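Margin note from the TA: students keep mixing up input and output lines. Inputs are the sequences; the output is the structure of the whole complex. Example:
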Amino acid sequence: MTIYDVSEKAGVSIATVSRVLNGSDNVSAQTRQRVLAVIEACDYTPNAFARGLGLNTMNTVGILCADSTDLYVANAVYNIERELHENNYNCLLCCTGYNVEDKQKYLNLLVNKKVDSVILLGSNFISDNDDENEYIRKAAGEIPVLLLNADYDYENVYCSICDDFKSTLQATNYILDTGVEDILYLYNSKSYSALRKLSGYQSALTQRGIPLRAEYMQYFPGSHSNLPAVADFLMEIDRAVEYHAVVAGDDNLAIGAMKFALKKGMSIPEDLSIIGYNNSILSTCCEPELTTVDNRLEVLCHHIVKTLVGILDNKEMPQKVIFSGELIKRGTTL
Amino acid sequence: MTIYDVSEKAGVSIATVSRVLNGSDNVSAQTRQRVLAVIEACDYTPNAFARGLGLNTMNTVGILCADSTDLYVANAVYNIERELHENNYNCLLCCTGYNVEDKQKYLNLLVNKKVDSVILLGSNFISDNDDENEYIRKAAGEIPVLLLNADYDYENVYCSICDDFKSTLQATNYILDTGVEDILYLYNSKSYSALRKLSGYQSALTQRGIPLRAEYMQYFPGSHSNLPAVADFLMEIDRAVEYHAVVAGDDNLAIGAMKFALKKGMSIPEDLSIIGYNNSILSTCCEPELTTVDNRLEVLCHHIVKTLVGILDNKEMPQKVIFSGELIKRGTTL
């Protein structure tokens, strides 16, 4: 006899059974009575119930992120965590780092801890090499897996996505519309999301018949809290490429490009236009303030919690939802 | 019969019993044998054991923070979380917001979830009104409570502190040494740490016989990811106070002061010197880069995990450790 049986017999979700057992106010009197009647009829005690589930703690969601100091991730953790608490869920957060082995280890750990569901923050949890996604498929066999801004088609996997392709296409077009065609694209990751952005840049050029040149797509791996290092990188490639605009995969890289322009004595946006990505706090920190893409993180987080609560309430929820980003125009573009 | 009895009979810590039961490699063969012998002698099964404890999950540490998007807090979460995992502890993170009632609620929740210990990030968890600290005293009656950068004398409460008084005193002296005496102090919190910083500013002036003037100590409450709002606040008080330096309680406020200087057409540092606090990513984001105080967050986090692991291994650990901050000199000071 498990909580699942009680849930089924009472015709309510597992979360609701748990709320009744925990004495939460968030259950109607009628539902409470129905659940308690089933529990009584089965001679079911919370202790036995907890033992059956392997864990006394209920309503717990695991959250995995690579690095909580990444501004995008920090905001995601905050938004998701607060909203889950409002829905009477607790969170087990794990910062995994970027190694696939560590991600596997932590995801297994959370599944073994019998969390109700798991949320993976950021597209770096999905690999191009599908063998490396086996740990996700395995987890989805046990509990719902929710992905923030990653795309993966599999049963019991739910994706909330910002259309990074379209956003970067629009950002690049915005610069092309000013007559500037030599645009450097700067990126620091080869995650699904990062490659979609790159692809958006490429499409914008191709649609106008501008040839793609490898030296205009510069990859500088890392998460780059070290902003001067980004400027140094641009100084190094300075002789090889001439450009009058930078579209960057995140705000940190864009700020690094601003530091590079300063070193070179270039005016922003007259000599160099710059567009970042994420609309992070960094984008209002610099002068001029940074034109950037708002990738709707709060909307995505809200949707992911809504989906999770729905699934655990046995509701039918969409497996993939795609939102559109928005270009926030500030001082670094003409 | 509880895990505490097994721990006592075997002469090892609760954490060690838990490691043995979880099959962790991190226990010597000798200790493992001793624990298993006690468990066998008592006809003790993990299920009964888990029931006795009220929870099957072991080696879990609760972390409370007000707001994980605060850069200081985000870095603390990351450092502590990674290091706890290296020591085979899992983390339950709760973002409480700033209300005392919510902090109480979440701390009670974690204690009820039978975490082994709890870490409170930031001095805003301790109130000047000691009645409001009752929830901390109550938790400390059950499990060790560790405070990051907060000072509270109580049994089973452990504090890792950066000497914010001394750091701000030094920062203020650094400006006074350049001959500038009209220094605005800007702060956004009245937490223990925030008031210690203010006090450091006041002492620096008093030690040189410079009178303290209320209008030179400006309080602009909030966490201020909205940097332009800080600049607007300074524009508002502009007619009332004339100053040639700003010492700020965090980097966000200092960047706001830089935006104010730009609006006013003042040169930094010639017309206005500025010092921030935290050495966050924002401090290298702006131009010129920000002189700021490195408050040794990584060192504090390392110490807090070391203390926690020690306590749970039944070692004698110091209840209070104080580290010194360091002034990082960059472009916003003469």
